[in-house]
Design a protein that fits this description.
single chain, 240 residues, alpha+beta, 2 domains, five-stranded mixed beta sheet
Length: 240
Amino acid sequence: MASERDPSNPGVGPVTASQAEYLHIFSHDLKNRVAGLLEVIRQLRSVTSGNGTDELMDFGERQSFALLRRTEEALDDLGVKTTGPRPTIAPVLLNEALAEAIADQQYRFDRKRQSVELGTQSDLTVEVDGRQLKTILTALLSNASKFSPTASRITVSVRQEARTAVIEVSDPGVGLMAADLEHVFDRYAWLGSASTAGEAQGRSTLARCAKMALANGGKLAAHSDGPNKGCTFSLHLALA
């Protein structure tokens, strides 16, 4: 089935189903190869600095992110769907989901001697796709670890607002400027913050998680008081 023409892009025509499949596979391969180049830059950064190399590596990273973002925009213009499977909604106990996600990321916390403080235990149950919830929680915990210093404390809390559960992951890390907050859920956005130990920064992960939250009838929000003042990511989900 052909995709509809995007009225905001009159020069871009629809693509057939076979063309869309080809473009989807091509873009996936392209992103994997660029990810490999970004990993090379990351490794070089860990062993080389000074004499203008930092500026060159920053330029290489920025151009790589720009290429990835432009690829995503081109797929959008052509109407090529890149979303994952539809969520399978079912009751999920938040305590169990959080415990599993924290255990999954424990190696990160151990490596940076970070601790995770889980707030008041709650027996709240939410309506969500369990696998996608784990993906979101794992990504938020990973993000908090990457952008927080060694020996810091990451806080996870759960509260109820009307018929909604709010899960907050807060870190004392590098924070975000107001301009960056506007784009933190944009795919492959180039933000001013950098990880604290040279960790790879998957700048599309939070964007995918925001889409997953919406697909599950919830939302993902971010707050920061500015650089070096940490971040709080809030996941809102409907109670079962």
